[in-house]
């Protein structure tokens, strides 16, 4: 199945879970530019579980909209475990959501370094007060990396409810 079709199916599956459990979800996205929230809201009836999401591409927006401390951004950078933790917690709090997905990474083709290569993405999943962080390195061009990140993020939340 093509990745876009897989994302659509995953988003519909997650939507059914959220509706059934009467849970709400938000996103705090950097490298995906709103792709996860687009996928979630592409499902009819998504207004039952999505109220607001955050696209925070710059450090300033991460600070202003999500409350990520400037000291965390300065010390660890946008693409870090510490930053996505703060993003997820800030998004959940500001959206008053049960679940938050935060992503920050290097989608490429430029911007990578030895410490933070192209394809590196940090994820934070906030579910009813519990926080889990994951780090992945994806391959492919910018579009492929972003699509893989979207699918991975949605799939993780689905698996939390299986």
- How much helix, percentage-wise, in residues? 40-55%
Unreliable parts: none
Number of strands: 5
Give me the CATH architecture, please.
Alpha-Beta Complex
| Average residue-wise pLDDT | 97
Tell me the radius of gyration.
15 Å
Total domain units = 1
Beta-strand percentage range = 15-25%
The biggest beta sheet is recorded as: 5 strands, mixed
CATH superfamily: CinA-like
Estimated structural class: alpha/beta
Polypeptide structure, described:
The radius of gyration is 15 Å and the shape is globular. It is built from 6 helices and 5 strands, in the order H-E-H-E-H-H-H-E-E-E-H. The chain has a 5-stranded mixed sheet with strand order 2-1-3-4-5, with helices on both faces. The longest helix has 19 residues, at 3-21. The protein has 162 residues and is of the alpha/beta class. The protein has one domain: Alpha-Beta Complex (Maf protein). The chain has helices spanning 3-21, 35-41, 59-66, 70-76, 81-95, 142-160, and strands at 25-29, 54-55, 99-105, 120-127, 130-137.
Question: Topology, pairings included?
Answer:
Elements lengths: L2 H19 L3 E5 L5 H7 L12 E2 L3 H8 L3 H7 L4 H15 L3 E7 L14 E8 L2 E8 L4 H19 L2
Parallel strand pairs: 1-2, 1-3
Antiparallel strand pairs: 3-4, 4-5
Helix pairs in contact: 1-6
Protein name: Damage-inducible protein CinA
InterPro entries: CinA-like_C, CinA_C
Pfam family, one: CinA
